[in-house]
Design goal:
Blueprint lengths: L23 H20 L3 H32 L7 H48 L2 H4 L4 H43 L1 H8 L2 H38 L1 H6 L3 H27 L1 H26 L4 H42 L21 E11 L2 E11 L4 E5 L6 H7 L8 E6 L2 E2 L5 H6 L1 E5 L9 H5 L8 H10 L3 H5 L18 H15 L3 E5 L7 H15 L3 E5 L11 E6 L2 E6 L1 H7 L2 H15 L1
Parallel strand pairs: 3-8, 3-9, 6-7, 7-8
Antiparallel strand pairs: 1-2, 1-4, 4-5, 9-10
């Protein structure tokens, strides 16, 4: 199933389940799993940093409680008829407490930010490594937007969870506890009455949090849909412009933006409920405290200073309580992101080394396919019982109409996929019994879609052998018939070639790819439509370079233009996943079968052009 978003619709990313019917108990259990995973792998290494942050959190909470405590002597002694020396001591004490509070907040934020940044950096690196090591069988099931959303958005949300929300929760819980202790010490009956409002607040926040969690997940899904639409529009920009479809793509992206906006509005409404809820219930608590406190001050000997201290503690406790209510949404978003990251890490490669895999022992590089069948999806075979031998040092071509399985056969050699049935041998060794590292190190590839990076010419040629010397890189470029045009570039080998080599022509890009394969100097060479997208002049230049590259190597060529494989040692015609004809160019023409008809058709088309 395609993940492409059309007509404003969106397809949820793999692994994301609908949340509308899940219970609060389910989410609580899921949250614990995610939280244990995050703390165990990513938070635990910073244990002592968090101990230090906790120390400063305690100082922050204690200093807030001390301010509330000092309200009693301030009222009774500074502003009342108490000890006159307190008029100096209390202001100095307040100044000292405020200073401690400010310093503690500063160091707490520095430590927490440090931990958060390092956690997200490690998460991103681990996630990229995991995606990078995933094989083609896994990668083809995920859209690039899905991978990018995990790498950028979800790791950022987890950083907010760890370094912001959770740490703030700890600080605010401590502060509320310290201030509650002050209230209880000043007048515990009054404290109990005041705190009776807490269960109501907890129920309200829990209900809002459940609603916000569902909406947060929907926003993430819509953001994924938007990323998909944007990436596809930018990747297909050339086609978009040729077909004059700019407005269509703007409309598609705009539709995705609007769909996300609708859900974001609902989330904003749900989030905004926490503020009036805490305001109203906090006001009720403060009003009740003032009313009953005034009564106790008149009847039970509670001094105005103690009442003032109690009210100061209550008002100060209201601030962390409000933050706790608001942070619930952030916690839910971070836990959702954490769950999605767990799902991403759970994607395991299907092509891996066997437990007893050994290094590939190359003798000449003979490749043999024995009864090879393959299917991407069960019940839909792409290859069916293919038997084929590619002798060491020989050039063998695969031709035929599109969809015959030629490129798939090539992709099985470096184990981008594993065969469904049969086996592939290199010098008599089953490729599933050797290590992927040594197998792929023995293979060089040149494809129709030249893969170049936004780096220098030199870096692109040396990609397969980054330790190569400048002399070796230059020799490879010369052999690939690329050195002349490279020297004419503004900065020669150090010229940046742009994204996907956009600053080079098609023929130049292909010769850079050939130079890269020459420098790698692998004994087995796979050529997949290496000249099909080039004009005649560029094709001739590339053919000369390819002939040099193929010399002495075991080469398997997939080609659409039959003129490019006339000199192959043997040609095999593939149709519907099977080899239906084999022979040299001359013998296949004499046979007068599929190859001859295909060759005649191409010759007729070429003459007509």
């Amino acid at each position: 199933m395609s993940n492409r978003v059309t007509g404003g619709g969106q397809v949820p990313p793999p692994g994301v389940n609908p949340v509308s019917k899940k219970s609060a108990f389910f989410f609580a259990k899921e949250n614990m799993v995610v939280f244990r995973w995050l703390t165990g792998l990513y938070v635990r290494p910073y244990f002592w940093h968090l101990v230090a942050a906790s120390f400063f959190m305690i100082l922050t909470a204690a200093s807030a409680a001390a301010l509330a405590w000092l309200a009693a002597p301030a009222v009774d002694d500074v502003f009342g008829d108490g000890d006159r020396s307190m008029q100096v001591i209390i202001p100095l004490a307040v100044l000292g407490v405020v200073t401690v509070n400010g310093v503690a907040i500063y160091f707490q934020q520095i430590i927490v930010s440090f931990v958060g940044q390092h956690i997200v950096a490690k998460l991103q690196l681990d996630l990229f490594r995991h995606f990078n090591e995933a094989d083609a069988a896994v990668r083809t099931k995920q859209h690039n937007a899905w991978l990018l959303a995990r790498l950028m958005n979800d790791t950022g949300a987890v950083q907010g969870l760890v370094s912001g929300t959770v740490i703030s929760l700890a600080r605010d819980v401590l502060m509320f506890a310290f201030l509650t202790a002050v209230m209880a010490f000043r007048d515990w009956p009054l404290a109990i009455i005041t705190l009776c409002i807490m269960p109501l607040l907890g129920l309200g926040i829990g209900s809002i949090g459940l609603r916000a969690r569902k909406l947060t997940e929907q926003v993430m899904d819509k953001s994924y849909a938007l990323s998909t639409a944007v990436i596809e529009a930018l990747d297909g920009q050339r086609l978009v412009k040729i077909y004059g479809a700019e407005n269509r793509e703007v409309g598609r992206v705009g539709s995705a933006i609007n769909e996300r906006l609708v859900v974001q509005r609902r989330l904003i409404k749900a989030r905004s409920l926490t503020s009036p809820l805490t305001e109203i219930l906090g006001g009720v608590a403060i009003s009740a405290a003032m009313f009953y406190g005034a009564h106790r001050a008149q009847t039970s000997g509670l001094s105005f200073g103690e009442l003032g201290s109690f009210l100061a503690a209550l008002i100060l406790a209201y601030r962390p309580l409000k933050r706790l209510a608001a942070s619930n949404v952030g916690v839910q978003g971070g836990l959702i992101a954490g769950r999605r990251l767990m799902e991403a890490f759970a994607l395991k490669p299907e092509v891996v080394d066997s437990p007893d895999a050994k290094a590939l022992n190359l003798a000449g590089g003979e490749i043999r396919f024995e009864g090879v069948s393959f299917e991407y999806e069960a019940g839909r075979p792409i290859l069916q019982g293919v038997d084929l031998t590619v002798p060491a040092g020989r050039a063998i071509a695969l031709v035929g109409v599109s969809g015959g399985g030629k490129s798939t056969l090539l992709n099985l050699i470096p184990r981008l996929y594993d065969v469904t049935e049969g086996r592939i041998l290199i010098d008599g060794q089953d490729i599933r019994a050797v290590t992927l590292e040594t197998l792929r190190a023995s293979i060089g590839v040149v494809t129709q879609e030249t893969i170049l990076f936004d780096d220098t010419v030199k870096a692109n040629i040396a990609y397969g052998r980054p330790e190569a010397s400048d002399a070796e890189i230059e020799a490879a470029a010369r052999s690939a018939a690329a050195l002349d045009f490279i020297q004419e570039l503004p900065e020669g080998m150090e010229t940046k070639i742009g994204q996907r080599g956009v600053r080079l022509s098609g023929g130049q890009r292909q010769r850079i790819a050939i130079a890269r394969a020459m420098l790698r100097d692998s004994p087995i060479l796979l050529l997949d439509e290496a000249t099909s997208s080039l004009d005649n002049e560029a094709e001739q230049q590339v053919k000369v370079a390819l002939q040099r590259l193929m010399k002495g190597r075991t080469t398997l060529i997939v080609a659409h233009r039959l003129t490019t494989v006339i000199d192959a040692d043997e040609i095999h015609v593939m149709e519907a996943g099977q080899i239906v004809e084999s022979g040299t160019h001359a013998s296949l023409l004499r046979l007068g079968g599929r190859y001859a008809r295909l060759y005649q058709t191409q010759q007729t088309t070429s003459d007509a052009a």
